[in-house]
Queue: 2 jobs
Job 1
Amino acid sequence: MKRNFIIIILTLSSISVLRCAELITLNTNKLSTVLEVDDKGRLLHRYFGNKLVDTSPFLSKMLYRTTEYGTPNEAYSTMGGKNFREPALRITHFDGDLNTELQYNRHERHFDNEKGIEILVLFLRDKKYPLEVKLFYKAYYKENVYVMYTEITNHEEDNVVLHNYYSFYLPVDARQYYLTHFYGIATTEMSVEEIRLTHGMKSIETRKGIRSTHSENPSFLLSLNNPMNENNGEVIAGALAWSNNFKLNFELDEFNTLNISAGINPYAGEYHLATGKSFVTPPMVYTYSSNGSGDASRNLHDWARKDGLYAPTEIRPIVLNSWEGVYFDFNEQSLKDMIDGAAYLGIEMFVLDDGWFGNNYPRNSARMGLGDWQVNRKKLPNGIDSLAKYAKNKGVKFGIWIEPEMVSPESDLAKRHPEWIVKVEGREAPLRRNQWVLDLSNPAVQDFIFNAFDSVLQLSNDISYIKWDANRHIESVGSSWLPADRQSHFWIGYTEGLYNVYERIRKKYPHVIIQVCSSGGGRVEYGSLKYHQDFWASDNTDAFSRAFIQYGSNLIYPAIATGAHFSHVPNRHTKRIIPAKFRMDMAMTGRLGFEMKLQDLTGEESQNLKKAIKEYKEIRDIIQFGDLYRIVSPYDESGYYALMYVSKDKRRSVFYAFCLDYKGYLSTVNFKLNGLDDNKNYTITELNNPKPVFWGNGKTIKGDFLLKEGFNPQLQNIYQSIVLYLEASDSNSEIISHKPVKKP
Ligand code: DGJ
């Protein structure tokens, strides 16, 4: 008997059962993260998913992967110990040792009750050296979103070198993995691609420094077991908040575990961390849903409208931007005409784009003038203030464009401060769009940019909007400010410099709206958006292309921040002649704006726009603060794109449908709505159509019917579109049966 007992104990210990020392759980309203401190003092990742009522079985649940072949699922993987995966942390210690083995020390919990956030801080330390790592997990209770980042502190005898220093590490187990990610350049931003991950490594990254989201976006949706579906299946979605080189790795190992690491791109970025110093990695925002990608997006949107955007609870105004209307070719009168047009239509903000500055090197084209932020006296002899006042008198607010990180070779600034330009001595500094980048790692440049911003705001007390542009990326990297052996700090130095300027600006100008633009959507990420109210999604204002750009953007970023402008067609980027209604309907799915001269519109068009703007004002709170439900993806082979927003109380909703590719009248589709209350009766009103055509216009239909059967709005030709407003009424429901498709 005694013998048997001993055998059982040995067997249990040899398969690692009953060895957990401690479980550490961090919950949100619907989700749980479970970590384990094992008997060796390692911090392991055990669970991320729907909320667990009882986590204690983890204490006896066998860890299959602790055999001699495997790599344990650490909470923050390092190079060292038994790790063969891409390490989240890779360090060369002061004496050249390449290994790091993190040991759990203790943890703390902090609460921000006002915001509904719980912060878990785990204190880890290398087994051999006094190298400390803190893991921060912030749990946003109501939004079901986590944010992870780390702090690395060097208490060793001398400097250490950080090679990999990712913010985020997450091991995931599923049968199959489907990765949705984003690619594109100016005019094709946020194009969506879904791939099934195979074994090995797939990375999403940029090395461009600026315009960092013109190629890939630091965000993803990962569907487990099956391809992405709006309403079903497990999805992990994430976005890195960093405005420079990033890298997201998806490494599927030989055990079919997917190891996700994400953070600053290690590319040419070795970071020397001096003794006594700490480095904090940027935040990674992520969520999980077992109800498909729609739910995951809504979680991220809710988080963004709490903590991800600047001034997240303020309604965004309707903007008229001068760029596509006049480009560089304007004078005071033509701008006043635009302001008159804005006032007539009910537009709330006029933004004067590029071309208003420079005297020795006047900015009449993209050839010169960047850096000389003084009003061009020839073009605008009465200055900015008189224009801003003119707008104010018309009831329109005033905004202005800047590109403060850049300098033209032909500018006073470039002559005065050649040492501020990003370049390498003895190598040519390549031009893009005839401009160079200022070295923001240099504190003198940070001061210059802050002062430039400040001086532009001093041009008038009535400037309430800034469009912050950045029209090139960084190559041939070199800083005359950074020492020769710290050139690899440039990327971080630049970004920290940028954030430092933003902080100073936000302290002095808390109420100014600042739009982020980088040749369109080249800086669409949560590092920038923390300081900005909205982003310019693309210079491509073609309404057909916009279906894809805005759909992609809104998988991760909310509509309230998505600059979507109605423009005149054809224009520089837009050759397709699409009806004004379709263009306006598409712009109304985001933060509405305009790019045109009023003179370019027909009388009928301007009447219709005026009415649509009025209608948008009445429903924009639903678009900007409601829940997004994607009904049909523009990538769907049906040729339709449909979406809707539903107010949080489910009483009001806006539905949109667009025909992108008409496949014959027999192929028109029925759209089942989503997000409504099945018990409420909704009265339907067609918007932006002087002669409503929808058969259900004015009718009251039960939510149950709209959700289960839906309707066919009969868009029977390419570029037809419809916008419907649904409002819950207390009247009895009149169930309208689905009408057959009429022959065109
Ligand atoms: C690029 C932006 O994307 C455009 O909207 C416009 O502001 C131009 N720059 C101005 O140079």
Job 2
Amino acid sequence: MRMLDLIEKKRDGGSLSEKEIRYLIRGYVQGEIPDYQMSAWAMAVFFRGMNREEITDLTLAMADSGEQLDLTDLGKVVDKHSTGGVGDKTTLVLGPLVASCGVSVAKMSGRGLGHTGGTIDKLASIPGFQVELSQAEFLAQVKRIGLAVVAQTANLVPADKKLYALRDVTATVNSIPLIASSVMSKKIAAGAHGIVLDVKYGSGAFMRSENDARILADTMVEIGRALGRETIAVLSAMNQPLGRAVGNSLEVLEAIQALQGNGPEDLMNVCFELGAWMLVAGGRAADVESGQALLTESLASGRAWDKFLEFVEAQGGDTEAVRHGKLPLAPLQVAVTARESGYLADMDALQVGVLAMTLGAGRQTKESIIDPGAGVVLQKKPGDWIEADESVMVLYSSDQQKLEEGLSRAQGVYHIARSK
Ligand code: URA
């Protein structure tokens, strides 16, 4: 078999067999197929697409490229994945909320890159919190308390790591077959029986249109089911940030409020929908309505909050700091005020994500170091009335130059209109 022939076949709109897909993934991981040939193939896929069988074969070939977890001893375990958003702290809320209803949650998560934050960076902003556990520790914790969230190990789907880094610099990220196989290979390797996918669309998401998000969601659900996993996808809009906080410790603080029953409405709506489906996937609820009733009861009784504290303690985090909401915040804080009165007409999620990254909350490159206390807290959300000189948002940073850069960006992330 020659890689050149496989590139040509895809370029001309043909379909690759399972054998051919395994050949190219194995060859790429082992360094026998060079980046330039893999890039040409990824670009051919970008334009020509893949059929469902090819996508499923690619997913399995990638999942098989590294270690895979066997969670069968732990009963029905669920995992959840979001395709990336701004201010998306749902995992921090959903993990304990769902676990407190009796369904175990085992999640391996990535670090953030670019304008979308990563759950692991958020958890790492809790003093002492260990995001790296051995496989044995991870499994033991899920068995003991029904919840663990850890950084993806280096050997989980190495094919995706290499291919994703290549796609990132060859303009081939936004391809539905490549996104679907990338996400699902990691979910399959991580071992959960139930998988709930939150597929975002809008300005802050990979998929700009609802229609593309639906195609991506259907593709991933079909792959998951074909591979024997109970897979459910929910679509949610990401045109404006979710909740009010964007940035690592700021988002943990908002998740704490949510677990104490004071979460913002948009965040809670997404959590209740995804959480109910997680309970369905875990066999604890027959339908979404009964799932939501269980979640409501757990939140109101304080069990979800207690589970969060148990989780933080199990992973070495400072529960006293969490209990008292004392997480490190960046020392430089400045309010951005409205230049005129009116309704906040829109606030672009992508722009707010880039603003938070500029302040130090995200990584511009893989090597960037995150400022855990940096970010943005929105005082107003689209639809709110605002007076001239009133604060729209507060910026947090530890670096004067970044704060100034953020300030010069901030007025461009929202618009004010005379009517709603
Ligand atoms: N998230 C992933 O894990 N992979 C992609 O390709 C895109 C988003």
